[in-house]
Task: structure prediction
Amino acid sequence: MSRTGQSGTEEFTVDGLHVVVVGGARSGTAAAELLAAKGATVVVSDVRETLEAGRQSMSDRIRFELGEHRAKTFTEADLVVLSPGVTPELEAVRAARAAGVPVIGELELASRWLRGRIVAVTGTKGKSTTSVLAGRLLDTAGFSTLVGGNVGTALSAQVEQSTPDVIHVVEASSFQLELTERFHPWIAVVLNFSCDHLDRHGTIGRYAAAKRRVVANQNESDWVVANADDPQVLAMIRDSRAQRVLFGLEASLVDGVTVADDAIVRRTPSASTPIMPRSTVRLRGRHLLQDVLAAVAIGLIVGATPDAMTRAVAEFGGLEHALETVRQIGGVQFVNDSKATNIDAARYAIESFDSGLVAIVGGRFKGGDWRALRPALAGRATAVVAIGESRALIHESLGDVVPVHDAGSMGDAVRIGFTLAAPEGTVLLAPACASFDMFRDYAERGRRFKEEVDRLA
Result:
């Protein structure tokens, strides 16, 4: 799969190889089309009996095996590529490894053919907001920028557009990073770290190890942007060889990006340079302000001007499902933070409000400690509405701090929340859980919340 090119450097090639792509959703489809374009014969393996319309109308070099993962297909392959949503612990994947077949992820595959530089954004919370804002900021500053990875376009779909002038801003989840080998970001961004995805990684140590892969291949000419307010982040980058730009709101930064005198500033040991007024930021919550600081740090490294960054931040109203204001009904405000899929993310969302809050929480629990929400709820929340599989855990962990009401559907949750929050409170969807017990993904959950709010109105 490697050969020496005319320049003397090692090139990655799949020409003539038989490759299995596991998972036929967005990333898997993009990987399959890329591999076929590069000369491979591809089998897309998926446990679903049918895929979305159009999935099977691709290159004649691609065929599909649906309904099960066949071990023989995997063990006879030259390479296996996993979509992010597919666990490496699948029996067929283990069989492939035992047979000596290389197994990599879609992110790793695509990165081997990129010609542009990579800005990789990871963290437990805030990856999408930071990635999208950084992309808009760089685009406003005149740089050729593509945003993708775990948000928007799969990285495999960007290879054809990749030139040495392109900057790829890549949202990199732990699922994508855990199967990287050569993945080499020019700028690696670590936003925060807390317990999450134990249903996939098993232990917090394995989850942390996956996140640390973002800096594993960096050298002295690269950069790492890290949250100085998070001790676990600082521990994760401790051995990185890359140059550092820290950001934070609480740490006393001598060198980094922070907020001072109502402005976002770039501090160095010799000066403090204002970048933009604090009032430029339209996003609610300290955690989203930290995401803005991270995006500004990226912009400073790349070379964006303060004026361009200010214009981009001023125009950025946030992402759908991330503390998204839906509407107000009878004095009650409804806010959608369906992307809050872990305990810390829900805590950040809850802490963004002062009082009169009714929080809708629950779903498929991914690990962590529900009791971590107790200090945030005390004094802010008048009630909690529990949905999904984790309702019993929510009652047990939070019931002595705030009244907990059960809801069997999102419509029930919205109606109960409205009654409890009236006349002038806020109903916040901040589930702290995955959505798969009731919805296809967090986006469908957020859209259903908004539909029920509209129906209530």
User: Anything to note?
Assistant: Confidence is low (pLDDT under 50) at residues 4-9. The domain at 109-315 is CATH 3.40.1190.10 (UDP-N-acetylmuramoyl-L-alanine:D-glutamate ligase). The CA atoms of residues 266 and 272 lie 6 Å apart. The first strand starts at residue 2 and ends at 4.
